[in-house]
């Protein structure tokens, strides 16, 4: 699968099979995050792979994070505010996208979760004070299910087309593609 295919294939998965993610795949995901670019090559991130069911249950306490308890893997992504006070969140976010796209290539589903209580996560995982929890990535093998609400939402709220989100030369001068891409 090439990168563009992985980008097109990626979607947020909130239902997972009861099947562990093999360690070699976890290593590949973490390595993909490690290889992300960062300002001045500071690499102000830290990733915590959580497979323990009790810990994942605690991580799932956010209002929009309930499915984390069923995901066989949660990757907590942190940014070091002390190492890179201006860019830690951007750099960690670049690492997140590398992890998510790598997961697609590995046949895994993911969902990026921002619904969390940082103090609880930091206490549970013993995260030092100079690190901020950026997101948690739920990871696992997607469970096939009929999701009518998702299909209805896509009909009502489809993705924006390129001229709506991109300009050419100046803001507001729509970038009109010569080739139409499949949404």
Q: Descriptors for this entry?
A:
alpha+beta, 183 residues, 4 strands, globular
List the helices and strands and how they pair.
Blueprint: H1 3-9, H2 23-34, E1 45-50, H3 53-59, E2 73-80, H4 88-105, E3 109-113, H5 118-125, E4 131-140, H6 148-156, H7 162-165
Antiparallel strand pairs: 1-2, 2-4, 3-4
Account of the protein in words:
Helix content is 36%, strand content 16%. It has a 4-stranded antiparallel sheet with strand order 1-2-4-3, sandwiched between helices. Helix 1 crosses helix 4. The longest helix has 18 residues. The chain is globular, with a radius of gyration of 18 Å. It starts with a helix and ends in an 18-residue tail after the last helix. The model has no long low-confidence stretch (mean pLDDT 92).
Estimate the global geometry from the Cα principal axes.
globular
Helix/strand structural class: alpha+beta
Measured by DSSP, the beta-strand proportion falls in 15-25%
Q: Treating each run of at least 4 consecutive H or I residues as one helix, how many helices?
A: 7
Q: Please report the total strand number as a whole number.
A: 4
Strand ordering within the main sheet? 1-2-4-3
Integer-rounded radius of gyration:
18 Å
Fraction of residues in helices? 25-40%
Mean pLDDT: 92
Oligomeric assembly: single chain
Poorly predicted ranges? none
Distance between the termini: 18 Å
From N to C, what is the helix and strand string?
HHEHEHEHEHH
